[in-house]
């Protein structure tokens, strides 16, 4: 999680404690997209309230407030634990080997930074994904972006 997301969460918790910030990401350095969720759903009125509360960000960036949709972002250990058993796409900061090392040599597999598969575990330190190349453990510190995908 980025310092920007942490700051946004802290500020929203004061006025909108039921709002969960799923992801705050800078796009191209000029657009700030904030995905939010709420136990009663995300409405236009809620997005407007959150936009008003983030006036500092509106001055610095083009601000977009969005509901998670079907391809919900996953950015915290609790998110991953909640969706164990669902399919996810995980993009890592650095390319990682796929599958077992012996299989990689024989199949000519190259390291990759994008994995798609079933989320089979989520501890405090890493997730475990059953991807096409096999089971892979990815530390949270290596995850650049992750989201659920349609089954």
Structure description:
The protein is of the alpha+beta class and 151 residues long. The chain folds into 2 domains: 3-66, GMP Synthetase, Chain A, domain 3 (2-Layer Sandwich); 77-148, SH3 type barrels (Roll). The protein has 5 helices and 8 strands, in the order H-E-E-H-H-E-H-E-H-E-E-E-E. The strands form 2 sheets. A 5-stranded antiparallel β-sheet has the order 7-6-5-4-8. The protein has a 3-stranded mixed β-sheet with strand order 1-2-3. Strand 6 (126-131) and strand 7 (134-139) form a beta hairpin. The protein is elongated.
Gyration radius over CA: 17 Å
Amount of helix: 25-40%
Query: How many domains would you count in the coordinates?
Result: 2
CATH fold group of the largest domain: SH3 type barrels
- What is the ordering of alpha helices and beta strands? HEEHHEHEHEEEE
Layout of helices and strands:
Blueprint: H1 3-15, E1 20-27, E2 31-37, H2 44-53, H3 55-60, E3 62-66, H4 77-82, E4 87-96, H5 101-107, E5 112-122, E6 126-131, E7 134-139, E8 143-148
Parallel strand pairs: 2-3
Antiparallel strand pairs: 1-2, 4-5, 4-8, 5-6, 6-7
What descriptors fit this protein?
GMP Synthetase, Chain A, domain 3; 2 domains; 151 residues; 3-stranded mixed β-sheet; 39% strand; 5-stranded antiparallel β-sheet; SH3 type barrels
Task: Give a short summary of the structure.
The chain is an alpha+beta fold and 151 residues long. It contains 5 helices and 8 strands, in the order H-E-E-H-H-E-H-E-H-E-E-E-E.
